[in-house]
TrEMBL record:
<dbReference type="InterPro" id="IPR001845">
    <property type="entry name" value="HTH_ArsR_DNA-bd_dom"/>
</dbReference>
<dbReference type="InterPro" id="IPR011991">
    <property type="entry name" value="ArsR-like_HTH"/>
</dbReference>
<dbReference type="Pfam" id="PF01022">
    <property type="entry name" value="HTH_5"/>
</dbReference>
<keyword id="KW-0805">Transcription regulation</keyword>
<protein>
    <submittedName>
        <fullName>Metalloregulator ArsR/SmtB family transcription factor</fullName>
    </submittedName>
</protein>
<dbReference type="InterPro" id="IPR051081">
    <property type="entry name" value="HTH_MetalResp_TranReg"/>
</dbReference>
<keyword id="KW-0804">Transcription</keyword>
<dbReference type="InterPro" id="IPR036390">
    <property type="entry name" value="WH_DNA-bd_sf"/>
</dbReference>
<dbReference type="InterPro" id="IPR036388">
    <property type="entry name" value="WH-like_DNA-bd_sf"/>
</dbReference>
<feature type="domain" description="HTH arsR-type">
    <location>
        <begin position="1"/>
        <end position="96"/>
    </location>
</feature>
<keyword id="KW-0238">DNA-binding</keyword>
Length: 101
């Protein structure tokens, strides 16, 4: 997987209102899927869809406990996403072309 493929998964995870809402819930700590379903007023299949994208991005961790899955923010995934956003949006003046000047 190229670095840009990984970046695309991260930014896909961040480009949806429901997924951003889920991340906001997870800021206060680990949540059971049942809590997210109730708080967000969505079905289990919809939550599963969004959680797969968030987990595949590396921003969210999942763990099974009985029949329920518990989700939490991934510190390393969040740090990586922040680092990549900064790297991709910080101008690199050393490699600027002098074309058309």
């Amino acid at each position: 997987m190229t670095v840009f493929s990984k970046d695309a998964k991260i930014f896909k995870a961040l480009c949806d209102i429901k997924r951003l809402t889920i991340l906001d819930y997870l800021k206060s700590g680990e949540k059971c899927a049942c809590v997210l379903i109730e708080n967000m007023n969505i079905g289990q299949s919809a939550l599963s869809y969004h959680m797969k994208i968030l987990c595949d991005s590396g921003i969210v961790n999942a763990r099974q406990e009985g029949k329920w899955t518990h989700y939490s923010l991934s510190k390393s995934g969040s740090e990586y996403a922040s680092k990549r956003l900064l790297e991709l949006t910080t101008p690199n003046t050393e490699n600027q072309s002098n074309c058309c000047k």
